[in-house]
Amino acid sequence: MKTPLSILSFTCLFCLCASVFSAEVAPVLDGKSCEPPKYPKAALMNEEQGTVALLFLVSPDGKVTDSKVDKSSGSKSLDKAALQAFSLCKFKPGTKDGKPDQLWAKVEFVWKLE
Question: Can you tell me which residues the record assigns to a coiled coil (predicted)?
Answer without folding.
Answer: none
